[in-house]
Specification:
Elements lengths: L4 E9 L9 H5 L5 E3 L12 E3 L8 H5 L5 E13 L3 E2 L1
Antiparallel strand pairs: 1-4, 2-3, 4-5
Bound molecules: iron/sulfur cluster (SF4) (2 copies).
Length: 87
C-alpha cells in the first residue's frame, strides 16, 4: 500500500476467543480484515488481523458470534501514509 489512506476507527481483536468462522471478513465492507494463514491461536484457530483503513462501522462486532471485537471511532478522521504511519 503506497497511497495515503483515511482511517476513521480501529478495532481491538480478542484473537484467543476467535473460532475462525470468517464471518467478520465477509462483513467488513472496506475489506480491511484478513485472516491469518499460518498463525493460529492456542486453540488452533486462524484469526483476523486489521489492515489500514478501518471506518469504525462496527459490522465486524455485530456479526462476530464470539464477541471478539472492540470497535473505536476517532473523533476526527486520521491519515495513514507509508512514510509517517498514522497521523
Ligand atoms: S469496524 Fe468496520 S471497517 Fe473496521 S474492521 Fe470492523 S467491519 Fe471493518
Ligand atoms: S467473526 Fe469472530 S469468531 Fe468469526 S473469524 Fe471473525 S473474529 Fe473469529
Amino acid at each position: 500500500m503506497t497511497e495515503p489512506q483515511q482511517v476513521r476507527g480501529t478495532v481491538v481483536i480478542d484473537t484467543e476467543a476467535c473460532k475462525g468462522c470468517d464471518l467478520c471478513i465477509e462483513a467488513c465492507k472496506p475489506d480491511v480484515l484478513v485472516m491469518t494463514t499460518d498463525e493460529t491461536n492456542t486453540r488452533g484457530y486462524r484469526f483476523p488481523n486489521l489492515l489500514v483503513g478501518c471506518t469504525g462501522c462496527r459490522a465486524c462486532a455485530d456479526v462476530c458470534p464470539d464477541f471478539c471485537f472492540q470497535v473505536f471511532r476517532y473523533n476526527q478522521p486520521r491519515t495513514w501514509t507509508p512514510e509517517g504511519g498514522l497521523q
